[in-house]
Amino acid sequence: MAAARFCLPVLVLMLAVLALTHGMRGAGPKKCCFRFNETPMEKENVVAYMKTSQRCSRPAVLLKTAAGRQLCVRPSAPWVKEVISYLDTMEQSSSM
User: Fold this and answer.
1) What is the reported pTM?
2) Coiled-coil regions in this chain (predicted)?
3) Domain ranges, residue 11
4) What secondary structure, in 3-state letters, does the chain show?
């Protein structure tokens, strides 16, 4: 009988902790960058890009290569701006 009185509050506490931690996981950004690739890439080798969330501590762009890799790069780098411009132009011309 004493074990039942002890188990129910412990179970309720564990469920509350699980619910709280699960809810906290969904609140943050899915992908942030903390290290950056500084080596310029050929724009023809990049197939897509995505900007990271504004909630990340460092602004970044994720480049997806033709080989399927994702690279974190600085959005302020001149070569990154050229790649983004190239991809945007390619997307506009293919949608016409």
Assistant:
1) 0.66
2) none
3) 2-94
4) CHHHHHHHHHHHHHHHHHHHHHHHHCCCCCCCCCCCCCCCCCHHHEEEEEECCCCCCCCCEEEEECCCCEEEECCCCHHHHHHHHHHHHHHHHHCC
Q: Two tokens at 34?
A: 């903390």
35-82 confidence digits (pLDDT tens): 999 999 999 999 999 999 999 999 999 999 999 999 999 999 999 999
C-alpha dist (Å) from residue 37 to 15, 30, 68, 75, 96 = 42, 19, 16, 11, 33
Tell me the C-alpha to C-alpha distance, in Å, between residue 8 and each of 1, 15, 16, 23.
11, 11, 12, 23
Domains contained in the chain, number: 1
CATH code, 8: 2.40.50.40
Length of the chain: 96
